[in-house]
Design goal:
The protein is an alpha+beta fold. Among the domains are: 60-260, Glycoside hydrolase, family 65, N-terminal domain (Beta-galactosidase, Chain A, domain 5); 267-339, Sandwich (Immunoglobulin-like); 341-493, no CATH class. 28% of the residues lie in helices and 25% in strands. It has 15 helices and 35 strands. The strands form 8 sheets. Strands 2-3-9-10-11-12-19-16-15-14 form a 10-stranded antiparallel sheet. It has a 5-stranded antiparallel sheet with strand order 8-7-13-18-17, with no helix packed on it. Strands 21-28-27-23-24 form a 5-stranded mixed sheet. The structure holds 2-acetamido-2-deoxy-beta-D-glucopyranose (NAG) (8 copies). One 2-acetamido-2-deoxy-beta-D-glucopyranose is lined by residues 114, 116.
Length: 708
């Protein structure tokens, strides 16, 4: 233990700056605020700081350092009483205490290093020091917050892979709450947090804006659930932080450290109506535990199962209630989703798109024939929204490709076919030039620019159109001719440096091979291999694109490597693909909630694509299904079934973005609040979510193919 600038006072130490240190942890506490400013591993890689503060995240506001917080204590305090300066700070042999006052609330923070259990414990006690009952919960779920700034930022690739960690947060389950941090680069042991007393109602995100853009996860707050506090009463939350290796070790240690931790193992978090799921509960459960009031069946004192049958559509809470030894009750909630058969979701969505989202305005509207962004609140195409990510180009191509794949299965559906034929003309005449270039909005509707991202989608669109059992032409050219023109122009424009999402390597080469089109096969393969070699050569040295480093840079790298392996059989691509896949999977968490489980971390597209323009976590988000495509290819290559459940989890959990009536939303904004605005809902814009359905149809189609 190291103490600086101390004053000795009858055995206690009144301190200014403080370090808590033992063989496991190295923790710095700020002398003025009492906030934790640094937390490092004393044994592992001490170059990694697991929390954010000025030294590694200078964009973070000082008031949101670790352990500070706020309470909504009413109008007299403008609903935001921040505790930032303790009245008393004491330290003694591996422990630290600070007492803050916030109006009628006293907050005592105790921090302890326990060498026996190798943990660092933080305990926050809230005492009503006023003369009236204090009921924070009636104001809002987010009325009480403790800042826990995890070091989850995308500064640049090397800094992210060497010094930052993903925060997999589970705070929506009541007394079962945890955070698993994971080094982005996988360089050694990881920090975990498990709740050991009290209960949480969720987490929020702050400090997201158009300056730092998509490159920081923001500042996290955890929200304790407090009972009504009568004058003089107090209530605490406590958590333990500990080092662990992988997910199993994390769950095992959480179970050892916390009597209220429950591990949920649910065979699928999204079920089709009528399906059954086996739910395995380990940890803080017993033979008297109830799940939504029904008994569980236990093999041993802390291992129980429950068979769940999906009877009602929609998001379902499964609450496990357990009497703990000390006669308190612990409630732990998990969430599953129940959906109609996937084919029904796809057909109602396709019908909705062709009926409500296609522009039919006569030939002088440059958008005519396009599939457009739809506002579920106005129940109209969002024709007033002129933002770049709301044009009829760009990601909206996902609707067109989905419809092409639907037509491949239902070629006799004349209504869908005639809508698609209009759309085909729109893409070729308005989003493309005669030489195959691709624009991000239709010619004639403002300044159209080229955007390399859009090319692979147009390529995928043409190859899907080429596979249809009826002929389609535009400007005298067939889809195959359009494909080749677009392919040549993509690589002419510099496509080989793009970590291209949705590049149809496997699908187009298989198509040319099946049709004995050797010249086109050879040319396309040559271009794809040259592109792949750029990504192969860079390995984990990812270049920045629209975000400095992100899931959708790593995912296309994995997919491109694995598709090249499937096409060529060359092992070099497989090895490279495995490296990318390992990196990609670290973005995924295992929270017991269908919205988040195995859904890769992304946190900016509520702003770019949503109506309400929220920054902050999007769980789920359609590009997380790229992980399913990568895992699908990997499973095909190594010939195992083990990846099937994982692929299904990702695809199905994303179905939360669709409703049975064919309406949809582009992003589910998961935190309770983002920058103080209430969230935890699906954005009202149907924008680019149909990529999920495209990926479902693509994987099903690939499973039906024989060659490659
Ligand atoms: C650690 O273990 C030792 C020996 O078992 C015991 O005497 C001591 O009280 C323990 N310390 C804590 C903080 O639990
Ligand atoms: C990456 O980010 C870190 C931290 O902000 C910075 O120190 C480093 O210079 C950056 N490296 C590059 C290559 O930009
Ligand atoms: C610690 O992390 C840094 C940055 O990633 C790395 O260069 C170094 O090799 C790591 N050291 C150990 C012992 O893992
Ligand atoms: C749950 O279902 C499985 C498979 O049908 C069965 O083997 C098991 O006994 C059931 N468990 C309970 C607790 O009913
Ligand atoms: C747990 O849930 C039960 C049933 O919903 C409720 O009566 C009880 O108050 C809850 N206990 C806690 C500690 O939240
Ligand atoms: C479409 O219609 C044709 C001609 O009536 C028929 O031969 C074919 O089987 C139908 N295809 C499908 C997929 O229903
Ligand atoms: C391609 O060539 C093979 C072998 O010569 C032949 O069996 C097949 O029918 C051809 N396919 C097409 C679409 O021409
Ligand atoms: C496999 O692909 C790599 C990258 O294109 C290439 O360098 C290597 O020669 C190929 N190996 C074989 C056996 O074709």
């Amino acid at each position: 233990m190291k103490i600086s600038r101390l004053v000795n006072l009858t055995g206690l130490l009144l301190v200014n700056a403080y370090s808590l240190q033992n063989t496991q942890f190295q923790i710095d506490i700020d002398d003025i605020t009492g906030a934790v400013t640094s937390l490092r591993d004393a044994q592992g890689n001490s170059s990694i700081d697991w929390i954010s503060s000025h030294s590694n995240a200078p964009w973070q506001p000082l008031g949101s350092r670790w352990g500070l917080g706020f309470a909504d204590l009413g109008a007299a305090y403008l609903h935001r009483f921040y505790w930032t300066e303790p009245d008393l700070k004491t330290g003694q042999d591996g422990s630290y205490k600070a007492i803050y006052n916030a109006g009628p609330l006293d907050i005592t923070v105790r921090r302890t290093l326990d060498s026996n259990s190798s943990t660092f414990t933080e305990r926050y006690t809230f005492r009503n020091n006023g003369d009236e009952a204090l009921d924070l919960a009636t104001r809002s779920k987010a009325a009480l917050a403790i800042y826990t700034p995890f070091n989850d930022h995308y500064t640049n690739t090397s800094d992210s892979l060497n010094h930052r960690s993903f925060a997999h947060v589970w705070a929506n389950g009541g007394s079962n709450a945890w955070v698993k941090l994971e080094q982005m680069g996988g360089h050694g042991r990881n920090l975990g947090l498990v709740l050991t007393e009290g209960s949480l109602v969720g987490y929020s995100i702050e400090s997201r804006d158009i300056i730092t853009l998509s490159n920081t996860r923001g500042v996290f707050q955890l929200h304790p659930a407090l009972p009504v506090l009568q004058p003089g009463e107090s209530s605490s939350v406590e958590w333990a932080l500990f080092w662990h290796s992988d997910w199993d070790d994390f769950f095992k240690q959480s179970q050892q450290l916390s009597k209220q931790f429950v591990r949920f193992e649910i065979s699928q978090h999204t079920l089709v109506l009528g399906e059954k799921a086996e739910i395995r509960l380990t940890g803080g459960v017993s033979s008297t535990s109830l799940i939504n009031g029904s008994p569980v069946s236990c093999d041993s004192p802390d291992e129980c199962t429950y068979n769940y049958t999906a009877k009602t559509l929609g998001r379902q809470a499964l609450q496990v209630t357990t009497q703990l030894m000390d006669s308190t009750t612990a409630n732990s909630t998990a969430y599953v989703n129940v959906v109609p058969p996937v084919d029904d979701i796809i057909s109602s969505r396709v019908n909705f798109i062709i009926q409500k989202q296609q522009v039919n305005d006569g030939t002088d509207n440059p958008n005519t024939g396009a599939y457009a962004v739809y506002d579920n609140q106005a129940q109209s195409i969002a024709f007033w929204d002129k933002g770049t990510d709301r044009t009829t180009g760009r990601e909206r191509l996902g609707m067109g490709i989905t419809i092409a794949r639907f037509l491949l299965l239902h070629p006799n559906n004349t209504e869908v076919r005639s809508s698609f034929e209009k759309y085909y003309e729109f893409v070729t005449l308005k989003l493309q030039s005669e030489n195959g270039d691709v624009y991000d909005r239709p010619v004639g509707s403002g300044t159209s620019r080229k955007r390399l991202y859009n090319w692979p989608w147009v390529l995928q669109f043409h190859i899907a159109a080429a596979r249809l059992p009826f002929e389609i032409t535009s400007a005298g050219k067939t889809p195959v001719e359009w494909f080749m023109l677009s392919l040549e122009s993509f690589y002419r424009e510099g496509g080989k440096d793009l970590y291209a999402i949705g590049l149809p390597i496997l699908e187009s080469l298989r198509f040319f091979k099946q049709r004995n089109n050797t010249a086109r096969y050879d040319r396309a393969r040559e271009l794809f291999v040259r592109h792949g070699e750029v990504i192969l050569g860079r390995g984990l040295d990812y270049p920045p694109f629209e975000v400095n480093f992100e899931q959708s840079i790593v995912a296309p790298a994995a997919i491109i490597m694995l598709e090249l392996n499937r096409v060529t059989g060359n092992e070099t691509w497989l090895e490279a693909g495995e490296l990318q896949l390992t990196t990609l999977l670290r973005f995924q968490g295992r929270q017991p909630d269908h919205l988040v489980h195995r859904v890769g971390i992304r946190h900016w597209d509520g702003y770019w694509f949503g109506k309400d323009r929220h920054w902050g976590d999007t769980f789920p988000h359609h590009w997380s299904t790229l992980d399913a495509v990568a895992l699908h290819h990997y499973g095909q290559i190594i010939g195992d079934d083990q990846h099937l459940d994982h692929v299904q989890e990702i695809l199905r959990n994303n179905l939360a973005l669709f409703s049975p009536d064919g309406t949809a939303g582009c992003a589910w904004i998961y935190p309770l609040t983002v920058n103080g605005r209430e969230t935890h809902y699906r954005d009202p814009y149907a924008n680019d979510q149909d990529w999920i359905l495209n990926h479902i149809l693509y994987i099903d189609d690939d499973n039906r193919q024989s060659s490659f």
